[in-house]
Amino acid sequence: MVIEGASVTAIMVVAQFLEVGGDTLMKSATKDGMSIYIFIFYSNLLALCFLLPTTFFHHRKRPPPPIPTSIFFRIFLLSFLNCAVQILMNTGIGYSSPTLSSAMVDLVPAFTFILALISRMEILNMKKRSSQAKVIGTLVSIGGALTVTLYKGIPLISDAFRNIEMGASGNFLSVKQNWILGAFLLANASFFLSVLFITETWIIKEYPEELVVTTICCSMVVILSAIVAFIKEGNSKVWILRHNKELVAVCFSGFFVVSMKSVVYKWTFRKKGPIYVAMFNPLRVVIALGLGVIFLGDNLYLGSMIGAFIIVIGFYAVMWAQAQEEHRARENNLFPSTTDSLLSIKSMDF
């Protein structure tokens, strides 16, 4: 059980690295003129080309169970949410940056926690230390993300972009307006992402076939994103991938972000639940900062280090709470309550 928990955590951390890397590549490609809507369509189309044969190969000997009508309608809802999240998230990154995106998705744990309580996927008992740790850890992680976003402090690494604010005031106003619009789109994307997490858990708990659900959902997203792309771009030359950078961004997003990450997330939903998955989003801020400093020469400020440390503390608190709840559940399965034992003995005597 401990090994399995460690493997799930490691896979989820790798998924965060891949997602931040995909956001950075997408930002770079769209900055050179690639349409965000075309990017979303091609990414999902490529993911479908990977998922379809993989699903058939996986179920070549054991066909999946038939999909109930209720599950199919939920998958359609999931596809709509998935398409909306991708459009809002990628458009928001286009107006702002991957770092702001990583900071805004730290709203996801709070949104997911509230929605999980409303939908009864999470039972909160504040008399138990695990529930207390889960609530405090979630709030601490969000506080750490806000610290990274709002407080800079002194630079710990030499200021590589000290002249970034020099320029025309009109350009600065335009950048500021785009940044605000990007933040608004990313905040909406975070809320829909939380709804998506709840919907995915709702589906996968009743129909635990991650590959099948992901493939059907991806095929629907391809159709929806194609409709949106045709409405926004029409039949123009933007459909042609012009640069190697665009091709690399689409391939990386299609294989790693859309297909593999989706399957991993659904598998983790079934194993751990929506709040466990949502709690990994604050790590994206730390990863984005680290990759920015190492590969892009970004500044590293004291506020970023403090915020990252706070995020790690909150993340550890929630992971500890999750482990405690799983340990308690195993003990309850191994050692049923005295009342249940007496009832079983009484029924046997009867």
Write up this protein.
With 350 residues, the chain is mostly helical. The protein has one domain (2-124, 176-301). It has 13 helices and no strands. Helix 1 packs across helix 11. The protein is globular and about 60 Å long. The two termini are 38 Å apart.
Task: Give a nutshell description of this structure.
With 350 residues, the chain is mainly α.
Helix-strand blueprint:
Layout: H1 2-31, H2 36-58, H3 69-95, H4 98-104, H5 108-118, H6 129-150, H7 169-206, H8 210-233, H9 244-272, H10 274-278, H11 283-295, H12 302-334, H13 338-349
Helix pairs in contact: 1-9, 1-11, 2-8, 2-9, 3-7, 3-8, 4-11, 5-7, 6-12, 7-9, 8-9, 11-12
Low-confidence stretches: 159-175, 337-350
Structural class: mainly alpha
Q: Number of folding domains?
A: 1
Count the helices. How many?
13
Mean pLDDT: 77
Largest sheet: none
Total number of strands: 0
Distance between the ends: 38 Å
The ordered H/E elements are HHHHHHHHHHHHH
What is the strand content?
A: under 5%
Q: Helix amount, in percent?
A: over 70%
Shape: globular
Rg over C-alpha atoms, rounded to the nearest angstrom = 22 Å
Features of the shown structure:
350 residues; mainly alpha; 13 helices; 78% helix; globular; disordered C terminus
